[in-house]
Amino acid sequence: MNGWILAATVELGGGGAAALWGVTTGPTGRRVIAQNLATSVVCPALLLLSQGYGRPAYVDLALLLAVLGPVGTLVFARLLSDDLAGERPSAWGLTWAAAALGAVVVVACCVATGPSRAMAKLLVIGALLIGGNVIASRALSGGFQGVRGG
């Protein structure tokens, strides 16, 4: 077991437990936020496992998850809009912590990879992961100012 795999194990253990607890308990708002957290935890873990095992295919899975995870959160928010209308869930501390974790993992993987097309792919994954999760969290907490319906 090398450091990359150990870091992925720690991240999946801590973040996965928090996401699992949030999904299984509490009101609907917390469950949707926990679903968003699951994306924020699994995507960087796939990047760490890709470095640890030397399998670039895991990076493609992380890219797919970075694209589809926030979209899934927005679909759940739209389908559960009636349930979320009374309560506006907010987890900005958790959102920024997950974004910082994603940024740290992407930068570490970029340093290990070196300048190449793989590094460009890692940077795209980082931007999609952080941007998508911040936008999804903002949509869950009440939308954007000046936007009709938000």
Topology:
Blueprint (H helix, E strand, L loop, with lengths): L2 H22 L3 H26 L3 H23 L1 H4 L7 H22 L3 H24 L10
Helix pairs in contact: 1-2, 2-3, 2-5, 2-6, 3-6, 5-6
Please tell me what the overall shape is. Answer: elongated
Count the domains: 1
Order of helices and strands: HHHHHH
Helix content, binned percent: over 70%
Content-based structural category:
mainly alpha
What is the helix tally?
Answer: 6
Mean pLDDT: 86
How much of the sequence is in beta strands?
under 5%
Count of DSSP strands: 0
What oligomeric assembly is this protein in? single chain
Using the CA coordinates, give the radius of gyration: 16 Å
Sequence stretches where pLDDT stays below 50 over 5 or more residues: 146-150
Which terms would index this structure?
6 helices; 150 residues; mainly alpha
Please give a quick description of this structure.
This protein has six helices and no strands. The protein has 150 residues and is mainly α.
Written account of the structure:
This protein is mainly alpha-helical and 150 residues long. It has one domain. It is elongated and about 50 Å long. Helix content is 81%, strand content 0%. α2 runs antiparallel to α3 and α5 runs antiparallel to α6.
